[in-house]
Design goal:
This protein is about 30% helix and about 25% strand. It has helices spanning about 5-10, 10-15, 45-65, 85-90, 110-125, 155-165, and strands at about 20-25, 30-35, 75-80, 95-105, 135, 140-150, 175-180, 195-200. Helix 3 packs across helix 5.
Amino acid sequence: MEKIDLKKQYSRLYNTPLGKNILVRVPAFNFLMINGQGDPNTSPDYKEAVEALYSVSYALKFQSKKESPDYTVMPLEGLWYGASEQVFLTGDKDNWQWTMMIMQPPFIEAGMVEQAKAAAAKKKPLTALPRLRFESFEEGLAAQVMYVGPYSEEHDTIMKLHQFIGEQGYSLRGYHHEIYLNDPRKTTPARLKTIIRQPAG
């Protein structure tokens, strides 16, 4: 049986043309999620959250192979927000708030997640595991663009995306959303691919 790849099934959402702002409609998907705060470059909280998300995602993948089709683990995604816009305008990364998450196939259920959490915890201590949750998330209408380059240089691309939303007759809503298509530990900053998404309404 062919392995399920949700990135291919939802290619318009996960393979946006490079540098082209487009409107998309994002349906409800199920995610593993962890909330936190702090600079993603230095915060132990961020590192622990990402480790827990991947550990449980891979535990789910191997666990579900016994009864369900095999599938490719989806990329890491992040919702970014703050108590005010000032934390972003001033680069106050220590006060950035985030929800890191990984989308799951539709046949994954809450009971399976609890089993996978227990299996992951047996392999190694995961500090963020108690904060991990499984829930549905729907963005609806959004604008997005594929950006290639260092995370630190996204600003101009984000501003152009916001401008595009206004030109289409919409306003910004919801949280700034990023989808990380590469592993930053193995990819040079200049080659990092990130889908930048902003809900519109």
